[in-house]
Write a structure and sequence with these properties.
The longest helix has 28 residues. A two-stranded antiparallel ribbon has the order 1-2. The protein has 2 domains: 73 residues, Arc Repressor Mutant, subunit A, CATH 1.10.10.10; 120 residues, no CATH class. By secondary structure, the chain is mostly helical.
Length: 217
């Protein structure tokens, strides 16, 4: 059986993975009771692990630097309790080349060089170009499912990433193209970067440390 995180650990971890997130969004992500999530966030606020920000009519919780350190401490403790460090390191090693490919694919969705402009925005009028990108997203769906599934076998909180990516891709397949990379919905890109952030936090890897080396200029 995969190791199950405590409710408190999930609530603190939520803003790390989701970014600035509402109480309801954190509760929904992990299938938790919203009132219990709110009580824990308020407690974490008194410890200065989280803070609440408002933007116009919306608001959300985010981790402070102390909260980030506490979350990483808890994730390391959980990883050792589950005896899953080697499994997750293997998952990360398998994910890194997929992440390089996904980054290129999403760049190709947003940018289509032409007329001497290497950074021209993709206006989505070249159907062959877009079709190639969408086929690549489908290929990545199958490979991502294997990697995310391996993570979920070790730690229960990784369950759902593969299904969410596939659900976003199904919407893309019926013409709802915002589900490729719109940050306001559970798009392919949103799910992917959350999984990546979850892996980094779990293994204590600083963001950017697993990026491929840049070619010499």
């Amino acid at each position: 059986m995969p190791y199950a995180s405590t409710v408190a650990d999930l609530v603190l971890h939520g803003p790390r993975v989701l970014g600035c997130a509402s109480t309801g969004r954190i509760a929904a992500r992990f299938g938790l009771d919203e009132d219990e999530v709110e009580d824990l966030l308020l407690e974490f606020g008194t410890r200065r692990w989280v803070s609440h920000a408002r933007f116009a009519d919306t608001g959300g919780w985010y981790l402070t630097e102390d909260g980030k350190a506490e979350d990483e401490r808890r994730m390391a403790k959980e990883l050792d309790a589950a005896d899953a460090r080697t499994d997750l390191e293997r998952v990360h090693a398998d994910f890194v080349p997929l992440n390089v490919r996904f980054s290129q694919v999403t760049t190709d969705w947003q940018v289509r060089p032409h007329h001497g402009d290497d950074l021209a925005a993709n206006d989505h009028t070249d159907w062959a170009w877009d079709d190639r990108v969408l086929r690549a997203l489908t290929t990545l769906d199958r490979r991502f499912a294997r990697v995310a599934g391996a993570a979920a076998t070790a730690l229960q909180r990784f369950d759902g990433y593969a299904a969410r990516y596939s659900a976003a891709l199904a919407k893309v397949d019926v013409g709802r193209r915002r589900w490729v990379d719109d940050p306001e919905v559970d798009s392919c890109h949103t799910v992917w970067i959350q999984f990546h952030e979850d892996l980094l936090a779990t293994l204590g890897i600083p963001r950017g440390d697993d990026d491929p080396p840049r070619p010499p200029s």
